[in-house]
C-alpha cells in the first residue's frame, strides 16, 4: 500500500482565525495533496473551522506541544502509506505558494529532508533580534556538531520522505520544540538535508510559541539537548 | 571551610551534574525535569568553588557555619524538586483521566457503529 500524493501536516493550537486561509492556500497551490490538521488541544473552534474546509482533522485529547502534534501526523502518514509529507504552520507565516518547490526539491535532490529557510533570500527578518540571535546560535551549534551549514534550523516549513518519517516516529523526537537538536540527530544518523529559500510572513497576532519565560527555558533545553545529542550514537 | 569539606562538596556537585546529564543522554530523564537538578548541582559547585559567595550567603541568612548554608539550600532545592513533581503528577493525573475517558468513549462509539453496521 502506498499513497502517491503528498500529505500536508498542519499542527494547530488555537488558530481558528488564521487557519482557514492557510488551508485554502494549500488547496489552491497543491490541489492533489491530502491535508491533515492536528488539533493540539485547542480551546477555540479550530477543529470545527478546519473540518469545514473539508480537510482531515485529528483531535489530541489535550495539549502536547507542537513536536508531539507533528509526530502524531507523522505516525498517521506512516500508517497510511504516504511517501512524502510537508509540514507547515497554521498561523499563516508559511506561504503555500512554495509547496510545489518543496516537492520538486525533494524529487530532484534526493534529499531526505528539505527545509524552507528564511535566510537564503535577501530581506529583513520578520521578528525580534533576540529570535534572530537565537537562530544564529543554533545554526552555529549545528555547524559545529555536523559540519553542515543550515541557516534556518528552527523553520517549521519542511518536506520529508517516508524513510525519515519513520525515524521521526521514535520516542527521541522532541515533544515541545523540534529544532536544532533534531537536526543534529538527523545528520548524525546519515540523512541528507537540503535548504530552499522561502519568504515567511510576520506573525500578526495571537499566542506565539515563544512568549514569556519560555524563551529562557527553550535556550536551556536546546543547549542541553544539543549537548547530549552529540554524546549519543545514532 | 576546610579542604576536606570542599573536596567532598565539589565531588558531590560534579557527580550530580554528570549523573543527570548522562541520564538525559540515555533518555531516562527528559530535559525539562533535569533543569532543577542541574541548577542545584551548579549552585553547589559555584558556592564551593567561589567561597566568598558562600560566606556572603551565610551572613545574609544568619547561618553560624558555612556548611549550614549548604545544608539549608540543599534542603530548599529538594523541597522545590518535590513540589515540582507534585505539580507534574497533578497535571498528568488530569491528562490520564481525560485520556481514559476519551478511550472509553471511543470504544463505545466503535461498538455502536459496529451494531449499526450489522443491523
Query: Could you give the count of β-strands of chain A?
Result: 7
Secondary-structure-derived class of chain A: alpha/beta
| Arrangement of strands in the largest sheet of chain A | 3-2-1-4-6-5-7
Oligomer: heterodimer
Mean pLDDT of chain B: 89
Give the DSSP E fraction of chain B (strand runs of 2 or more residues).
under 5%
Cα distance, first to last residue of chain A?
A: 29 Å
Overall helicity of chain A: 40-55%
The helicity of chain B comes to over 70%
Stretches with pLDDT under 50, minimum 5 residues of chain A = none
Label the overall shape of chain A: globular
Please tally the helical runs of chain B, counting DSSP H or I stretches of 4 or more residues.
4
Distance between the termini of chain B: 83 Å
Spans of chain B of 5+ residues with little confidence (pLDDT < 50)?
Answer: none
Q: Given the helix and strand composition of chain B, which structural class is it? A: mainly alpha
Following the backbone from N to C, one meets helices and strands of chain A in this order, namely: EHEHEHEHEHEHHEH
**Cα-atom Rg of chain B, whole angstroms?**
24 Å
Which two chains touch over the largest interface?
A-B, 14 and 14 residues
H and E string of chain B: HHHH
- From the alpha-carbon coordinates, what is the Rg of chain A to the nearest angstrom? 17 Å
> How does the major sheet of chain B shape up?
none
Structural description of this entry:
The complex is a heterodimer of chains A (234) and B (119). Chain A has eight helices and seven strands, in the order βαβαβαβαβαβααβα. Chain A has 234 residues and is α/β, with parallel strands linked by helices. In chain A, strands 3-2-1-4-6-5-7 form a seven-stranded mixed sheet, sandwiched between helices. In chain A, α3 crosses α6 and α5 (129-146) runs parallel beside α7 (180-188). The model of chain A has no long low-confidence stretch (mean pLDDT 89). The longest helix of chain B is centred in the last third of the chain and has 53 residues, at 66-118. In chain B, 89% of the residues lie in helices and 0% in strands. Classes of the chains: A alpha/beta (234), B mainly alpha (119). The A-B interface holds A 61-62, 171-172, 176, 217, 220-221, 224-225, 227-228, 231-232 and B 21, 24-25, 27, 31-32, 34-35, 38, 94-95, 98-99, 102.
Amino acid at each position: 500500500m502506498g499513497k502517491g500524493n503528498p500529505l500536508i501536516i498542519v499542527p494547530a493550537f488555537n488558530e481558528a482565525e488564521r487557519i482557514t486561509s492557510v488551508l485554502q492556500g494549500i488547496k489552491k497551490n497543491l490541489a492533489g495533496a491530502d491535508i491533515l490538521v492536528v488539533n493540539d488541544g485547542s480551546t477555540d473552534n479550530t477543529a470545527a473551522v478546519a473540518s469545514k474546509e473539508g480537510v482531515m482533522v485529528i483531535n489530541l485529547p489535550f495539549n502536547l506541544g507542537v513536536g508531539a502534534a507533528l509526530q502524531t501526523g507523522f505516525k498517521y502518514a506512516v500508517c497510511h502509506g504516504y511517501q512524502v509529507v510537508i509540514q507547515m504552520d497554521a498561523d499563516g507565516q508559511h506561504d503555500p505558494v512554495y509547496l510545489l518547490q518543496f516537492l520538486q526539491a525533494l524529487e530532484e535532490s534526493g534529499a531526505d529532508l528539505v527545509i524552507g529557510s528564511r535566510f537564503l533570500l535577501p530581506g529583513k527578518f520578520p521578528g525580534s533580534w533576540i529570535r534572530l540571535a537565537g537562530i544564529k546560535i543554533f545554526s552555529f551549534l549545528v555547524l559545529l556538531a555536523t559540519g553542515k551549514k543550515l541557516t534556518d534550523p528552527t523553520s517549521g516549513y519542511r518536506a520529508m520522505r517516508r524513510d525519515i518519517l519513520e525515524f521521526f516516529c521514535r520516542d527521541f523526537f522532541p515533544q515541545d520544540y523540534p529544532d536544532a537538536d533534531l537536526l543534529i540527530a538527523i545528520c548524525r544518523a546519515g540523512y541528507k538535508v537540503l535548504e530552499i529559500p522561502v519568504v515567511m510572513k510576520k506573525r500578526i497576532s495571537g499566542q506565539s510559541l515563544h512568549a514569556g519565560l519560555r524563551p529562557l527555558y527553550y535556550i536551556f533545553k536546546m543547549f542541553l539537548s544539543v549537548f547530549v545529542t552529540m554524546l549519543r550514537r545514532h | 571551610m576546610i579542604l576536606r569539606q570542599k573536596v567532598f562538596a565539589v565531588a558531590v556537585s560534579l557527580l550530580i551534574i554528570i549523573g543527570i546529564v548522562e541520564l538525559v543522554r540515555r533518555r531516562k530523564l527528559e530535559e525539562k525535569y533535569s533543569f532543577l537538578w542541574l541548577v542545584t548541582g551548579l549552585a553547589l559547585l559555584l558556592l564551593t568553588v567561589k567561597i566568598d559567595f558562600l560566606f556572603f550567603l551565610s551572613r545574609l541568612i544568619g547561618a553560624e557555619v558555612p556548611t549550614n548554608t549548604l545544608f539549608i539550600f540543599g534542603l530548599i532545592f529538594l523541597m522545590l524538586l518535590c513540589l515540582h513533581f507534585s505539580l507534574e503528577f497533578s497535571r498528568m493525573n488530569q491528562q490520564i483521566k481525560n485520556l481514559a475517558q476519551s478511550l472509553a468513549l471511543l470504544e463505545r462509539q466503535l461498538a455502536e457503529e459496529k451494531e449499526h453496521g450489522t443491523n
